[in-house]
């Protein structure tokens, strides 16, 4: 039986893993870490797990960073400022070399190990491990309640999946009481079929359980302090998914917490693009307008958007933008976007700009022979991501008629059939992709 005084959310430390290089999201991660990638017109990926923590009453948040972290650090510092008389904080912990450890983070578990002394100061603390690149809403209080109710050493959040996609995930096999009996990473064939779990005792209907009989790990873990210390004492344990979790299942009481709602890992360009374009639908899977659990971000004090003679359908227009005579369909228009006359955007994500150009900028652009920031007059863009501060001239056509899947071009990239103009990218007048 767990003592009542230990069932206290103020003793839960949230640790967000934000140090990955994000190679599969290149070129969006060329100059920034994956959790710093813009999302939904005005947010960053990191805003999602931080907001989930705040909405769950968990206000002690550490963010572990390593690659290209300057942009992420700047965003967190300017977005999450807590009352100095309260206990809450959102603190960035970067990879650091010390006299006893000269190495950078070797994996997710190693990142936590290197800062373990900062997370385990009180005997009754719990550690909630989160990913910085997933899109979902979750009340972590329910995870805590499940953990305490079972008297668990570790709780792992799981989501039901169909057989068609199950082999892409690390799968967990649960007993009827929720205890995890087995873990396999991306099994196939007979090994996959052996991981089928009856999820009706966990709350799914018989029909739902039949459609989605596999339970995928969401990469969300809740540890008792002593258990985490013991598991990370072995320096060879550098990754949670591949090493720590299988070891934990062998040694401790590990339970699953079933999450049956929208959850998307935004680790690839295709997944990231689809999740953003889905936001433009009339019934998006993830709704930023749900104020029962709002997603927080930096306060920018931008003016309202100005829209002149435009045709806009099923799109998201962020603040501070100026749109003149454009046709925009199923697109995300980010903050401070400038879109010229006769521009056509279809299924496009524009991340906007970090600043407005002034007279000196215009003169510099003229001397360098490059367009001003924004989308130039008469440009036609379909199925593309235009990163921040991009300079697109007049008459630019991004249509990928040949349906190229992957290519590195002059000033652009194609990934999963999606054309990407990188941050600060330049496409001169009349460019055709």
What is the gyration radius calculated from CA atoms? Answer: 23 Å
What amount of the residues lies in strands? 25-35%
Structural shape: globular
Sequence stretches where pLDDT stays below 50 over 5 or more residues: 1-5
What's the domain count?
2
- What is the number of helical segments per DSSP (H or I, 4+ residues)? 12
Within CATH, the superfamily of the largest domain carries the name Spore Coat Polysaccharide Biosynthesis Protein SpsA, Chain A
The largest pleated sheet is described as:
10 strands, mixed
**Which structural class do the helices and strands define?**
alpha/beta
What does this structure look like?
- The chain is an alpha/beta fold and 433 residues long.
- The chain has two domains: 4-278, Spore Coat Polysaccharide Biosynthesis Protein SpsA, Chain A; 306-427, UDP N-Acetylglucosamine Acyltransferase, domain 1 (3 Solenoid), CATH 2.160.10.10.
- 22% of the residues lie in helices and 28% in strands.
- Strands 15, 16, 18, 19, 21, 23, 25, 26, 27 and 28 form a ten-stranded mixed sheet that branches.
- Strand 4 (60-65), helix 2 and strand 5 form a beta-alpha-beta unit.
Summarize the structure.
This protein is an alpha/beta fold and 433 residues long. Helix content is 22%, strand content 28%.
Give the key terms.
433 residues, alpha/beta, Spore Coat Polysaccharide Biosynthesis Protein SpsA, Chain A, UDP N-Acetylglucosamine Acyltransferase, domain 1, 10-stranded mixed sheet, 9-stranded mixed sheet, 12 helices, 28% strand, disordered N terminus
